[in-house]
Design brief:
The complex is a heterodimer of chains A (about 240) and B (about 240). Helices cover about 45% and strands about 10% of the residues of chain A. Chain A contains nine helices and five strands; from the N terminus they run βααααααβααβαββ. A five-stranded parallel β-sheet of chain A has the order 2-1-3-4-5, with helices on both faces. In chain A, α1 packs across α4. Chain B is an alpha/beta fold and about 240 residues long. Chain B has eleven helices and six strands. In chain B, α10 links the parallel β4 and β5. Chain B is globular and about 55 Å long. Chain B starts with a strand and ends with a helix. Classes of the chains: A alpha/beta (about 240), B alpha/beta (about 240). At the A-B interface, α3 of A face α3 of B.
């Protein structure tokens, strides 16, 4: 049986809106997107994107920006792919530069201290859709030493909320679901699959997804926090 | 090699709505008795919003929300209501009334079984086997993947993956046919199957959110299925 009121041995973290605030990065991504859309003859303002994004969050869509692009380009596959590719190409250099990455994704308050404290008592790992970049980004923030760097093999091509992604990570860590917790900001992509597998679930109320409301009991986190240092209360 | 066609059950082989309304009538009665007053109209109103939010289980969500988010009470009420529905379904007339088969479904499945291998992937539990036998549906299918027997709940792709493995089929040789974007089309596309969306009430208000939700074909009547599959090159 999973722990419902305290953290188990292994802690798995989401990244954006869990360890760092990714809203400045998202803001820049959308500014870039508006320009690219204009180049493709699609008029769209930031305000429209914001309103559409609210609806996407409410619809429990697994991804945010991809949905916006797909809807804005009238579900046209070739232009959808071209626009996503251009957006990533223009965005990546900004995220590959340590100082700029930190400016666009500032660590949440108390992240360093909390992770340092937790790392002494638990095994820390990451479950993210951004495996390719995760290690480098954590290094930019100087928090990579707190985490176990386990093999990504078997996780390729899997995206949240697919429970298989979570299972591959647990297998790589050599732990059962009930021995691990998932800590993340999204009910749909973090809490739901982790609950389904029997992990302890911690929701952090941060960022755009703080407005998500549980649809049914499988969306309900065991523990809800609004800042990272609160995790320490639940640590042994 | 003959392609694999995997079917959802409720909403896809038969119209789920009459049974849903009966189930909601019982649930709202039990909830009201437990001090959480509500009506079938409340459930109908709330179901539209839950469907738009791609809630994996509509009934679990409705009962949980109206029970004051009391998971234990909700589970007891759902179990009691299910038992009453299954008791009602023992009667042949009630079965025909609560689970009306879509028109022409036997002919469609007979025709498809000549060119393809048929399986079922459903949120239903074991008890649906007896009901399917009485409706004459079992003969069409090689394999049934049922949530409580397999331990996976839609939209977890593993329940489809299990069916493929059990039937010895490759994802790219298979088509998933169902009435839900979230629980049928999405997990099928994630695994690399093709998908046919039967766009009927009440899940016809779901819209593909992005490319992973996009069915290869959309139909509004199961009688369109054989021609649609042939036209798309799957048969």
């Amino acid at each position: 049986m999973k722990q419902r009121d305290r953290l188990p041995d292994t802690l798995c973290f989401d990244l954006g809106s869990t360890l760092w605030d990714d809203r400045p990065a998202l803001e820049l991504q959308w500014e870039i997107l508006v320009r690219i859309l204009a180049e493709h003859g699609i008029a769209c303002e930031m305000e429209t994107l914001r309103q559409m994004a609210e609806e996407v969050v409410r619809s429990f869509s697994p991804t945010l920006t991809r949905v916006l692009v797909w809807q804005l380009c009238g579900r046209d596959e070739p232009s959808y792919r071209a626009i996503i590719r251009e957006m990533v190409e223009r965005m990546l250099p900004r995220l590959n530069e340590p100082k700029e990455f930190r400016r666009l994704n500032p660590l949440l308050p108390g992240a360093h201290e909390t992770l340092a404290e937790l790392a002494g008592r638990h095994r820390l790992a990451v479950i993210s859709n951004n495996f390719a970049s995760a290690d480098r980004w954590m290094e930019f923030h100087g928090i990579h030493t707190y985490f176990e760097h386990i093999s990504m093999s078997g996780a390729h091509g899997l995206h949240k909320p697919d429970p298989r992604l979570f299972l591959r990570r647990l297998e790589a860590l050599g732990v059962e679901a009930h021995q691990a917790a998932m800590i993340g900001d999204r009910l749909d992509n973090d809490i739901w699959p982790a609950n389904r597998l029997g992990m302890t679930t911690v929701r952090i109320l941060q960022g755009h997804y703080a407005v998500q409301q549980s649809r049914y009991h499988v969306d309900e986190p065991d523990i809800t926090i609004s800042s990272l240092p609160e995790l320490l209360q639940y640590s042994r | 090699m003959r392609p694999g066609l995997l079917f959802d059950l409720g909403g896809t082989l038969w119209d789920d709505w009459p049974a849903e309304l009966e189930y909601w009538r019982i649930c709202t009665e039990l909830l009201s008795e437990a001090g959480h007053s509500c009506t079938v109209d409340d459930f109908i109103r709330d179901s539209a919003e839950l469907i738009r939010r791609y809630t994996p289980s509509l009934n679990r969500a409705l009962v949980w929300q109206h029970s004051g988010r009391d998971a234990a009470l909700a589970a007891r009420i759902r179990e009691a209501a299910s038992q009453r529905i299954w008791d009602m379904l023992e009667d042949d007339d009630a079965l025909a009334r609560l689970y009306p088969l879509w028109p022409g479904i036997h002919d469609v499945l007979d025709e498809l079984a000549q060119a393809a291998r048929l399986g079922v992937v459903s949120m239903h539990g074991s008890r649906v086997r007896g009901v399917m036998r009485r409706m004459g549906l079992m003969r069409h299918f090689e394999e049934l993947a049922l949530c409580d027997e397999r331990g996976f709940h839609k939209p977890d792709p593993r329940i489809i993956a299990w069916t493929l493995e059990s039937m010895g089929l490759e994802a790219t040789d298979c088509v998933m046919i169902g009435d839900r974007i979230d629980n049928d089309v999405h997990p099928a596309k994630v695994l690399g199957l093709s998908a046919v969306w039967l766009k009927v009430h009440p899940y016809d208000i779901q819209e593909p959110r992005y490319e992973a939700d996009l069915p290869d074909l959309t139909i509004t009547d199961m009688r369109e299925l054989p021609a649609a599959l042939r036209g798309g090159g799957w048969l």
